[in-house]
Design goal:
Helices cover 33% and strands 24% of the residues. It is α+β, with helices and mostly antiparallel strands and 405 residues long. The chain folds into 3 domains: 104 residues, Rossmann fold; 62 residues, ATP-grasp fold, A domain (Dna Ligase, domain 1, 2-Layer Sandwich), CATH 3.30.1490; 202 residues, D-amino Acid Aminotransferase, Chain A, domain 1, CATH 3.30.470. Strands 13-12-9-10-11-14-16-15 form an 8-stranded antiparallel beta sheet, with helices on both faces. It has a 4-stranded parallel beta sheet with strand order 3-2-1-4.
């Protein structure tokens, strides 16, 4: 009798339920390792064969001891990071245990914002001007040659978290004094005014086999720092921006060497020059309910298909995409004044999903008519601002979250 494929998942935050469910559906032995603070989270326990809680997943060498101890009596086929913050850990463990998938150096390209920019620039992919925050002469030269404003970005945080917009050298030096020994964990970057896009992909054998390109409304950095309604909408495949981003995305993911898995990648189209700049990429499913927007547009659940890709690799099988359908979808999300906002008034037939999360309002619109999508998004954004919208100062670190979406 052949043994079951064993998938071990790392989860610093509560997410990835559909991945776990799909692994169990495909008759895998599913192991979840998570921090103690997530013990009471609503994990799909009927889909998890073994679950282990640790004080801290990122405490070395304790996590290595724990995973290799499990491996003494279990043949682990794949180690999967369910959250962005677990990508380097998974790479370290794969490297240590000589397993398939991204190792230490390869995973860093998908996690470290400085490494991303350096790798992209060395391979001819356009990025905003940047410099490492290490040598002060380099910083002075950067500020002399690149006009402000600049963005000071944490190299290892997710999305817009911890980013500071700086307008002169005095602001920068003051901020660096505050950071002290933490300075080298940041990258300084030119601020390029523009429209921000994201493309969400599945990759197999180093080729993008599925992708959907979307355009943010207000850029995420602005929403995070100034408040507002987060919106994004799917682009038609014939749109020139969509075609350009699709091509760039293939080059980025091939250059970075993802090989197999799911990715959320962002590009910026400069208002001044109309050029596309690479912003960042990842080796995981996008957050903020974007995965649901993709599913309502295409029928593809990125978590489930990522699981199918990993299982196919472990079993030596050929992966096939599910049957696709095409709709245009849009997503709106904002912090809400109400504990549980009443979304019943948003009752157009195109509304296919409503968020049920404390102090959040969110919904997805799906339609075959792109003009109808744009009209509803514009109307609903204004209504969200009036009906629900609240604002909190942006968080500096993900450790301040109980959960990252």
């Amino acid at each position: 009798m052949s043994r079951k494929t064993t998938i071990l998942c790392l989860a610093s935050y509560y997410k990835g339920g559909r991945f776990l469910e799909q692994c169990k559906k495909r008759d895998c032995h599913v192991i979840l390792v998570a921090p103690e603070k997530l013990r009471e989270s609503k994990w799909p326990h009927d889909c998890i064969d073994e679950i282990f809680f640790m004080p801290d997943l990122h405490q070395h060498p304790n996590i290595t001891y724990a995973i290799t101890y499990l491996a003494r009596s279990r043949h682990i086929d794949q180690i999967i990071p369910l959250d962005d913050y677990d990508v380097p850990l998974a790479g370290n463990l794969r490297e240590h245990m000589r397993m398939t998938g991204l190792g230490d150096t390869a995973s860093r390209v998908f996690r470290d914002k400085l490494t991303m920019r350096d790798t992209a620039r060395r391979h001819g992919i356009l990025v905003p001007e940047f410099t490492r925050v290490i040598n002060y002469d380099e910083l002075r030269m950067f500020m002399a040659n690149v006009p402000p404003p600049w963005l000071l970005k944490p190299r290892g945080e997710a999305g817009a978290m911890g980013i500071k917009k700086l307008h002169d050298s005095e602001q920068l030096w003051r901020k660096l004094d505050e950071l002290g020994d933490e300075q080298s964990y940041f990258v300084l970057e030119q601020f390029v005014e523009g429209t921000v896009f994201h493309i969400d992909s599945l990759v197999s054998d180093n080729h993008v086999i599925f992708s959907k390109t979307s355009k943010y409304g207000t850029p995420p950095l602005s929403v995070s720092h100034d408040g507002g309604v987060f919106t994004t909408k799917m682009l038609p495949e014939h749109d020139p921006d969509c075609q350009a981003i699709t091509e760039l995305n293939q080059k980025v993911l091939q250059t970075f060497g993802l090989g197999l898995g799911s990715s959320h990648t962002e590009f910026l189209k400069g208002h001044a020059d109309g050029k596309f700049y690479f912003v960042e990429t990842s080796a995981r499913v996008g957050g903020a309910s974007i995965d649901l927007m993709i599913e309502h547009a295409s029928g593809v659940n990125l978590w489930a298909e990522w699981a199918n890709l990993e299982i196919a690799r472990a079993r030596g099988e050929t992966y096939q995409l599910p049957t696709l359908y095409d709709k245009y979808t849009g997503l709106l999300v904002c912090l809400a004044k109400q504990e549980y906002p009443d979304l019943s008034g948003y009752n157009d037939p195109e509304v296919t999903w409503r968020m049920n999360k404390k102090h959040h309002a969110g919904l997805i619109i799906a339609t075959k008519d792109y003009n109808r999508l744009e009209s509803l998004l514009e109307s609903y954004t204004q209504r969200f601002s009036h009906d629900f919208m609240a604002w909190l100062p942006p968080l500096e670190k993900a450790t301040e979250y109980e959960e990252i979406n």
